[in-house]
Design goal:
Blueprint lengths: L1 E4 L4 H13 L4 E5 L19 E5 L5 H11 L3 E4 L6 H6 L2 H23 L5 H4 L1 E7 L24 H20 L3 E6 L1 E3 L8 H10 L4 E4 L5 E6 H14 L5 E4 L4 E3 H15 L26 E4 L14 H7 L7 H14 L1 H7 L2 H11 L9
Parallel strand pairs: 1-2, 1-4, 2-3, 4-5, 5-6, 6-10, 7-9, 8-12
Antiparallel strand pairs: 9-11
Helix pairs in contact: 1-8, 2-4, 4-6, 7-9, 7-11, 9-11
The structure holds nicotinamide-adenine-dinucleotide and 2'deoxy-thymidine-5'-diphospho-alpha-D-glucose.
2'deoxy-thymidine-5'-diphospho-alpha-D-glucose binds next to helix 3, helix 7 and strand 8.
């Protein structure tokens, strides 16, 4: 049995579905169900008797201790976090609370639980912490990719809160001997990603004839990895990773944001040609001709404050030591993802509540989004 935290979010739910399909041992999913957590993501696991869902906060020590003693996991895999950079700019408190204080409380309870284990369970126990490339800061266009020894230089409240949690995880190994492993991954995309993040936002907006907002000059670079490849990396690190080590995971697929949204628009042109929608008023700009290409919806808007210019991950350590490889190419992964969103617009509608509309108003109101409906 393993305890997964934050398993109702984007990566956590993909991880649990993959885990049950490929590994077979039971999973307890501890999730607070914030706006980003959706039990519906795990509908396919709900009837599986190896899967248990528990609603709760990683910061609630008494509750976490109880769950650990009750289920006796051989590992904790910590995905739980506030994860959206823009939200961390508008409201950093929840990021410090969950990512820093929550991880600290989880570590404390894991340490207490682990200290009381007998051998061989004590030596076999793992605390795997899922982190991000953003802790390393921003690269210039000719800089080499981040390695595991690149010094931390976080720039957003989100990145700083993740960096703090990584440091606590490291300290619990060095000070108390807790058997920890940390993975730092680049930008993920794929099914179940909340439509506040660039790729699902662009797919959903473009498919609905709404502006696709691209911050600044659109030339910021991210290194994209299909979520299934990230999940495989976490599984490998958990099962074969060396205790106390960190592993970078990345897609070796650096793209500017403009390249990403243009690729999405080209796929939509093919799957949903706009000629068919030419009489659809959603695709008509007031007083002008109907648009015929989704790329006409791409709109450069006011930049994100402190926007990191470029991320790139050097994943050679996990490749060399654990035999991990990214299997999905960006082009095929993106196409699959566009298909998934077009087929799951009901999921999009179900996760974008009134609170989501308030978020869109807050984040995009002063970015001059154009006048399309
Ligand atoms: P997400 O926002 O989609 O999901 C986060 C999940 O954590 C949600 O289910 C939410 O309900 C839950 N959660 C939040 N606060 C909690 C708390 N206090 N207690 C218990 N559960 C709580 O995030 P994601 O994109 O799936 O990211 C998962 C992890 O992977 C995060 O730690 C993130 O930093 C890391 N990461 C994400 C990416 C990416 O591209 N999305 C890349 C690298 C690393
Ligand atoms: O790098 C890993 C990180 O990737 C994870 O740790 C974070 O949890 C995850 O949210 C993601 O952070 P980013 O800020 O890179 O992802 P996001 O999808 O928000 O933005 C990707 C790029 O697109 C970034 O340069 C900002 C830009 N962007 C984003 C949005 C939401 C836009 O241009 N327009 C937008 O509307």
């Amino acid at each position: 049995m393993i305890l997964v935290t934050g398993g109702a979010g984007f990566i956590g739910s993909n991880f649990i579905l993959d885990w049950l399909a490929t590994k077979g041992t039971p999973v307890v999913n501890l999730d607070k169900l914030t706006y980003a957590g959706n039990p519906a993501n795990l509908a396919a696991a709900a009837k599986d008797d190896r899967y248990v869902f528990v609603k709760g906060d990683i910061g609630d020590r008494e509750f976490v201790g109880k769950i650990l003693r009750e289920h006796k996991p051989r590992a904790v895999v910590n995905f739980a976090a506030e994860s959206h950079v823009d939200r961390s700019i508008h409201g950093p408190d929840a990021f410090v609370q969950t990512n820093v204080v929550g991880t600290f409380n989880l570590l404390e309870e894991a340490r207490a639980y682990w200290s009381n284990l007998k051998e061989p369970e004590r030596s076999d126990f793992r605390f795997l912490h899922v982190s991000t490339d953003e802790v390393y800061g921003s690269l210039g266009s000719n800089d080499p990719a981040f390695t595991e020894t690149t010094s931390y230089s976080p720039n957003s409240p989100y990145a700083a809160s993740k960096a703090a949690s990584d440091h606590l995880v490291r300290a619990y190994h060095h000070t108390y001997g807790l058997p920890v492993i940390t993975t730092n991954c680049s930008n993920n995309y794929g099914p179940f990603q909340f439509p506040e993040k660039l790729i699902p936002l662009a797919i959903v907006n473009a498919a609905r004839g709404k502006p696709v907002p691209v911050y600044g000059d659109g030339l910021n670079v991210r290194d994209w990895l299909y979520v299934g490849d990230h999940c495989a990396g976490v599984r490998l690190a958990l099962n074969k990773g060396r205790v106390g080590e960190t592993y970078n995971i990345g897609g070796n697929a650096e793209k500017t944001n403009l390249e990403v949204v243009q690729s999405i628009c080209a796929i939509l042109d093919e799957l949903r040609p706009l000629e068919a929608a030419i009489h659809d008023s959603r695709f008509t700009i007031h007083g002008s001709k109907p648009i015929t290409r989704h790329s006409s919806l791409v709109t450069l808007v006011k930049d994100r404050p402190g926007h990191d210019r470029r991320y790139a991950m050097d994943a050679r350590k996990i490749e060399r030591e654990l035999g991990w490889r990214a299997r999905e190419r960006f082009e095929t992964g993106l196409r699959k993802t566009v298909h998934w969103y077009l087929d799951h617009m009901d999921w999009v509608d179900s996760v974008t509540s009134g609170a989501y509309r308030d978020w869109v108003e807050l984040n995009y109101a002063d970015r001059e989004m154009g006048n399309r409906k």
